[in-house]
Amino acid sequence: MTANTVLSKKFNKLLIANRGEIAMRVLRACHELGIATVAVYSDADRNALHVRYAQEAYYLGPSPASESYLRIDKLIKIAKESGAGAIHPGYGFLAERAAFARACIENDIVFVGPPPEAIAIMGDKQMARETVTAAGVPVVPGAEPGTDEELIAAAQEMGFPVLVKATAGGGGKGMRPVFEPDALPDALAAARREAKGAFGDDTVYLEKLIQGSRHIEIQLLADVHGNVIHLGERECSLQRRHQKVIEESPSFVVDEDLRQRMGAVAVAAARAVGYVNAGTIEFLLDKEKNFYFLEMNTRLQVEHPVTELVTGVDIVQEQLRVARGRRLRFKQEDIKQQGWAIECRINAEDPYNNYLPSTGTITFSRVPTGPGVRIDTGVFPGYEITPYYDSMISKLICYGETRGEAILRMRRALAEYRIMGVKTNIPFHQHMMDSYSFMGGEFDTKYVEDRFRMDDREANETMAAAILATLLAHKQSQRASQIVAPGARDTSNWKWYSRWERLRQ
Ligand code: MV4
After folding, report:
1. Is the pTM of this model over 0.85?
2. 278 has which bridge partners?
3. Which residues line ligand 1 (CB under 6 A)?
4. Among 54, 177, 219, 395, which is disulfide-ready with 376 (CB 3.0 to 4.6 Å)?
């Protein structure tokens, strides 16, 4: 059997092997496409929104994911019993397990995602580096895995600083920056220990440490007929402990030329592994705007909505069409970014107490709506937030004609948002929307952890002037790279500035 025959086949019923907002997102796409739906749930999710919204729901097991959402055997059994011809894994849980994709295929169930071989290659950082390098994709200069002696010698050759990375790595585990030769032996030992503990594999390699870089990623779509397109970039530099908190599209620092070059490279990387379905190539962008492949996420991502809003492409619908064997509905030249979208991840955590996760029953909520506002959520009043799953309870996504308008909408929406019963990071987002660095688009992957302070809202004349200059320059580059709606208002930067100031009071 070729990969194509099992990766795609017509189906009329889909099982969603996930929970929360992403289960809801996939259910909605199914509803629109006339695909019948099967939900699964754990003890903690008996009452959950995705269970009520699906046409059928099956009990998986106890609350810990290892006994429910991670049970491949149970999921396959339920798919067969219910007559589901396909499984959508969402993100997290089993989404990037080659073994799960393989189990689906072996049981004649369509896995709504890439071939297991593509997942396996991209899951191994060193294999991914080698494969994409052969396809002409730039990677950070570095040294292949070896003994400590070999890596120490390679580092001397490369020069410092270097970054020790685990080949099985993910989420920053097994990663150690090293600024001088004397510190390398200990860093290698520590990285190996951490990687062994987290992944059962202590293989490490080296890369040059790229400082002050941004995390920019390119969204891809591929069908089984050999069509691969990109949907432009997302700016994902605002992270805390390797968890993204705010994403936007487009990026403040990516112009049309850079976008096309990064897009072409991302498409080449996907082709190199025979990629099918939705996927994302992550890049580091350094201060000189050189970009380097970091890794590929072989799944639908949390932040996909910002791309949907600026391109008008429904990524989840497209995933389902591709899985049914259809051709992509878009060619590269059909894809145009218009306007600006920002996503704030709303987490049940206390930003005033080291982002400690907050649990309890949601007693009341008032969800913002209105022009340019989208909320993807899986919670509702009466739902209990438990410690079993991650703390993200909703995504607030705002759209505007310009970045400034998207920020003003986000401020308005955050001010409308009320959630009672658990603590949330809404105050964090409100402070970020007021921060001059954020407004000015001046941040890198270290900004949230190293420089952002919730209590720092001081107005500063010099800073404000710099932001205005940046916004003006940006608006001009936008004109060159973006289609502006006919009759669009040419709001001066001074007017923006005064509106910001008014909102700050
Ligand atoms: C890097 C880097 C700097 N130089 N590689 C973090 C997780 C993994 N995906 C790769 N990561 C990084 N790799 C080199 N050669 C900085 C990071 C990094 C980072 C990357 C993206 C988003 C947030 C980050 C936070 C800290 C470090």
Report:
1. yes
2. 221
3. 140, 163, 172, 207-210, 213, 215, 239, 242, 284, 294-295, 445
4. 395
